[in-house]
């Protein structure tokens, strides 16, 4: 038996009260035939409706995965090559460690924190054993693990997330026992960041809160902070003694180069080295930037105060993960290991593959912009946004009209996945939007 | 500015004991060292074993590369279909009474089962001990409570069935009982069909919810169908229960994390409720289960030829395990090692619950470089013709030295 000597034992809830609205925890039921139907996932609902639509011009703008110009999913050529190497050499499938292999952990550390040798602060933190990295079940799993971890060991439950944010953030953190609350981020009527209110709402929150920051390509708005704005936010973080939790699901999709998209991380490392910040955490996913979606490959990293703290935190992470799923899946993580292993010379081809993907997204973005009617609506925000999405600013009504009249399927918050757009349908889409906006 | 420590209450946790054992083994320079600790099947030559059906399925998958896209939140349909058939049999799998979810292997299946049961209002657990070391922390992790009873009698080195019956008779209604369907970890002591029949009777009578954990299906009888007898019997009797299923061992897919959870809902009308609840719960844990291993398994499930190869693989493994057990007994008998050892051939699966004491186990490590777990659980698959005699001689020595 795996016994513990946990000091903060009392802080751990013995029974978590479910936050899910259909929870029946408090009024016990007879057998599970009385569990009510859970609401379906919105995006999946859209895909289903799309699949049933007979209109040959139909467009699906709900997908969260990349598609090429012909509307097909792609396999990154570098990933395919790495997989070939893996399949040719793999002779068994035995368990990896609870937090993944050292090789994977080091690959992530070198890639994200050390910026492949170009970040002195990150390098120092790695050398001082102040970064604990664990492989997780992609980005979602890393958010969940850090949620559980903070719920157990951090002094505050309050977690601030931008409004709007990725649809699943609130559910994941609530389920982990934290108390998510929104901070101002975006002004829908102006289709722009609302930076003044962002600062104001963060400043009004209690000291020591956890604050979730999107590293780049904010989902769903695509609107990121400038380095100067980050500076102001990080000043508030220090002043209020917030705990920064960074979610990085789209590293590389802002600039086309993953090493350029980690400005926030580099700045945080600097603050830690300067002892202005004790600790922060990063949730990272290879789902999008390697196209490894279904293989569930990602990580959680916690930057700690000391090598001793790292040991304690690592042991607690293991203790936390063991009763959830024992160990993470190896296929995707071995592909990642191979890509970062110098002997295979694949890193550059991966960077090129990724750049090409992002290049297409940006081309499509400008083409859409070109074809939109600027006389009835200001579309300039499109050009400021980054990543896989266009946050149109269209109302739910307009989105529904697009669906009903033009077979254009998107979520009602007006977020369009660029993946669904290509040379063949961009004009049809722009025309549909123009018509709907005019009305 | 001054900043206070965010996590200063944290202390360093002891590693899982088996992890410690494994790292000691790795550091041991002895050429004779024997690893019989972690529950992973080893080939006759002592190396890792890739199932021939899996090797073939991997080739087929590579030739028809489906890429790495997001799958279904419920799981890959062909995988779930095959998983249901493996556990419940062709007929019951297709009756529409199952809500199923692809999970992060068997551990993830158990975790989802615990969450699902909590969602339905059940948090009171019963567990026969000794048992797999992860159950208790897993239940506690989701806020449940575990009461233990004896699964095993040290004197008869067999199932303590009186204790099972007495506990079933006295546990409050709506308690969840965790049972392992076959190849009990760590004791290797399974229930007979008569005993399962009695258990099922009591489960019905007393409104108990069984959670059947099946991590070694096929390794008991060598026949996956036979080893699923309890699951099918419970189903037949109209019991509502949960199954957690792992393909780590019986397809050798350990690190790929391939498993499933099934809830048997006898009133079909409510299957969608259970199903949607599972998906909603899973979405805030990790969204999707990993694709690769499940795709490999699906290819095996769907191909009649590979199914056949799989059946043979499992039968061969079981045959080897049984022959190793026989040889251990023969050697210990020949050595006239003090004590009775026929439990080694009575027990099923990967493990021999040897009855060696912690002190004897320590000596096995320190004097003989034989690494088993501190509770005396020996992974039979770690033995082969090359080291059976060495191993048995070591056991003989420690038994004579410490008693
Ligand atoms: C902001 C954000 N975080 C995390 C994730 C998690 O993705 P995954 O679990 O597939 O890595 C996503 C996926 O869409 C996302 O948009
Ligand atoms: C009894 C039992 N249940 C479940 C498991 C889960 O294993 P996995 O998560 O690798 O499928 C194991 C593994 O050792 C086990 O022994």
UniProtKB/TrEMBL annotation, chain A:
Residue ranges occupied by any Aminotransferase class I/classII large domain in the UniProt entry: 57-433
Keywords assigned: Aminotransferase, Pyridoxal phosphate, Transferase
Any one Gene Ontology molecular-function term assigned to this protein's record: L-aspartate:2-oxoglutarate aminotransferase activity
SUPFAM superfamilies with a match to the protein in the record: PLP-dependent transferases
Domain of life according to the entry: Eukaryota
Subunit structure, as described in the record: Homodimer.
Protein name: Aspartate aminotransferase
Species of the source: Scheffersomyces stipitis (strain ATCC 58785 / CBS 6054 / NBRC 10063 / NRRL Y-11545)
Phylogenetic classification of the source organism: Eukaryota, Fungi, Dikarya, Ascomycota, Saccharomycotina
UniProtKB/TrEMBL annotation, chain B:
Catalytic activity: L-aspartate + 2-oxoglutarate = oxaloacetate + L-glutamate
Other remarks in the entry: In eukaryotes there are cytoplasmic, mitochondrial and chloroplastic isozymes.
Alphabetically ordered keywords of this record: Aminotransferase, Pyridoxal phosphate, Transferase
NCBIfam families according to UniProt: PRK09257.1
Protein name, per record: Aspartate aminotransferase
Subunit text: Homodimer.
Lineage, uppermost ranks: Eukaryota, Fungi, Dikarya, Ascomycota, Saccharomycotina
Enzyme class (EC, first level): transferase
Cofactor: pyridoxal 5'-phosphate
Gene3D superfamilies on file: Aspartate Aminotransferase, domain 1 (3.90.1150.10), Type I PLP-dependent aspartate aminotransferase-like (Major domain) (3.40.640.10)
Gene Ontology biological-process entries: aspartate biosynthetic process
EC number: 2.6.1.1
Any single Gene Ontology cellular-component annotation: cytosol
Family per similarity comment: Belongs to the class-I pyridoxal-phosphate-dependent aminotransferase family.
UniProt-listed InterPro entries: Aminotransferase_I/II_large (IPR004839), Asp_trans (IPR000796), NHTrfase_class1_PyrdxlP-BS (IPR004838), PyrdxlP-dep_Trfase (IPR015424), PyrdxlP-dep_Trfase_major (IPR015421), PyrdxlP-dep_Trfase_small (IPR015422)
MF GO annotations: L-aspartate:2-oxoglutarate aminotransferase activity; pyridoxal phosphate binding
Domain Aminotransferase class I/classII large: 32-395
